[in-house]
Amino acid sequence: MKLQVFAVLFVIAGASALPAASEVVVVDEFQYQLAPKNQVVDQIKWTIELISNILQGLGLDPVEWEGSELNIEIPFLLKFNAFLENFRYAGISNIEIHNLEYDRFINKLDLDVSLPEVIFEVGDSGLYINVLSFFEILDAEFRGSISLKSIRVAAEVSVDINIIGGISLRSLSINFSLGGVESDLTFKLNNLDFSGLFNDFFNETVNNFFEEKEDQINKSLEIVVGIILRIIWAF
Ligand SMILES: *[C@@H]1O[C@H](CO)[C@@H](O)[C@H](O)[C@H]1NC(C)=O
Ligand SMILES: *[C@@H]1O[C@H](CO)[C@@H](O)[C@H](O)[C@H]1NC(C)=O
Ligand SMILES: *[C@@H]1O[C@H](CO)[C@@H](O)[C@H](O)[C@H]1NC(C)=O
After folding, report:
1. Ligand 2 pocket by C-beta < 6 Å: which residues?
2. pLDDT (tens digit, 9 = 90+) per residue, 43-102?
3. Which residues, 6+ apart, have CB-to-CB distance to 205 below 8 Å?
4. Nearest ligand to the CA atom of 146
5. Domain count, the chain
6. Closest ligand to Cα 217
7. pLDDT at 37 over 60
8. 83 with 126: CB under 8 angstroms?
9. What is the largest CA-CA distance in the chain?
10. Which residue among 199, 202, 209 is best mutated to probe the pocket of ligand 3, counting the most ligand atoms within 8 A of its Cβ?
11. Closest by alpha carbon to 96, among 49, 137, 131?
12. What is the pLDDT of residue 44?
């Protein structure tokens, strides 16, 4: 009997291991066995779906705009043209769950989620300013896309739970990875072509940065998330 009480306490404590978790405990009176459902996993799945639905509901994924144009013309004095066509930004609500497991006995959560692709596209855009009909101040064009492939976060969180249900962080491991940045942009300013510079920056400099700093990014995330969890669990 003592063991049963302890087991029930343990599961209840386990249920509060995660802020959003609540556990349903089904006690089979005849078998004296606990058959709890793993609601921690369900709650996390539900939360991820909720985040995804909120992002879509707020119109943040996708963001699409067929564009607009502004023309101002004052004869012999000013010619101004600005336009944007087919703007699109998509992918932030497409959260894929690769792994989600919660081990109630050692209070360990494994989570591995990703955004397969976040893309930013501009069909075409330009800005043209001409004064006194011969002095071309600005003639810029910009179009193309930047795509972030496979933004992935894998985390392993272990907690200790005391007899009154207080939670403390035992260990935390977070691995962040970026599959890659692909940039295919055209940017021209007053007949100078900066496209190569832009593309190299995104698909080389940024890619290398994430590759080289992987360990530091993981550690920084672990520190920040660790602090947040400790604060949440302190109350
Ligand atoms: C993070 O990567 C390290 C080294 O590759 C590995 O030992 C650790 O288990 C990984 N953690 C997670 C949560 O995937
Ligand atoms: C950081 O995360 C990346 C990507 O998952 C992994 O390859 C690397 O081993 C991790 N580094 C450490 C120190 O955990
Ligand atoms: C970067 O983008 C440019 C222009 O699209 C392309 O020529 C180049 O191969 C790309 N480099 C990498 C490493 O993807």
Report:
1. 154, 175-177, 214-215, 218
2. 889 989 999 999 999 999 999 999 999 999 998 899 999 999 999 999 999 999 999 999
3. none
4. 3
5. 1
6. 2
7. no
8. yes
9. 96
10. 199
11. 49
12. 87
Range of the domain at 37: 1-234
Q: Ligand 3 centroid vs 83 CA: distance in angstroms? A: 27
- 17, pLDDT greater than 70: no
What residues are paired with 135 via a beta bridge?
131
Mean pLDDT confidence for 203-228: 92
- Give the tokens for residue 15: 């249920």
Distances (CA, A) of 20 to 17, 48, 84: 9, 12, 43
| Residue 207, both tokens | 């890619």
Share of the chain above pLDDT 70, in %: 84
The predicted-structure confidence for 136-194, as pLDDT tens digits, reads as follows 889 999 999 999 999 999 999 998 888 887 888 899 999 999 999 999 999 999 989 99
Q: Ligand 2 centroid to 115 CA: how many Å?
A: 17
H helix count then E strand count, the chain: 5, 9
